[in-house]
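Shape is hard to put into words, and the shape of a protein is harder than most. The fold becomes a row of whole numbers, each drawn from a learned catalogue of backbone shapes. The outcome of that step, for a single protein, is printed below.
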Amino acid sequence: MRLFFRHILDCLLPPRCLQCGKILKQNSGLCRSCLDEINFIVKPYCAKCGHPLEYADENADKMLCGRCLSRQRSPFRLSRSAFAYDEASKNLILNFKFKDKTENAKLLAQMMWVGGRDIFAAGADVIVPVPLHYTRLLSRRYNQSALLGRELAKLSGLPCDVLSLVRHKKTRPQVELSGSARQMNVRNVFSVKRPQNIKGKRVILIDDVLTTGATLRECAKALKRAGAKSVDTLTAGRVV
């Protein structure tokens, strides 16, 4: 009966490509043309931060980028992203984040599930989305990172904790800033109000886009202070 009603619904409201609006034979999210334009991040990439590398050798799975080689300390165990945030992909994110296209969450999470396979293989206990300040959540009506986290929870079987990590200070949107200003803007604005849910856990920190990494680093520091065993970051897009 459910399949019958789904068939009727598909006839009345056929599935469309989330990018260009073309009618799809199957509800796959994107048409073949739009899917082919997405620049998925695949190996070779830095074994730690996931940044794409220009070349590879027989030790490609262990290679580090120059930044990770020079950086002594990092709050992250691993960082991964599904695709490059560029002209081919940005509307998927922007429409999802600012234009109420919440249906994009399922497709983006599926891409993150594939792009984050290294993280899931390394072991994880809980998914934690980057939180919004409550005033921004009221105006936007949803947290896009939380929607991604819940979809990933369905795919992975891991719990999604949307309550423990909080943004206790209102800040300017990161998109309005660049460089060191982004780091200063989010410094000490996150905290964990339920540390018992984080202590000893391997955390996957979820966000929509990694730009400079400032927000993710500050979230990771707060999680580590609360006793997290490790923190990995997983985003849909990444500025490359």
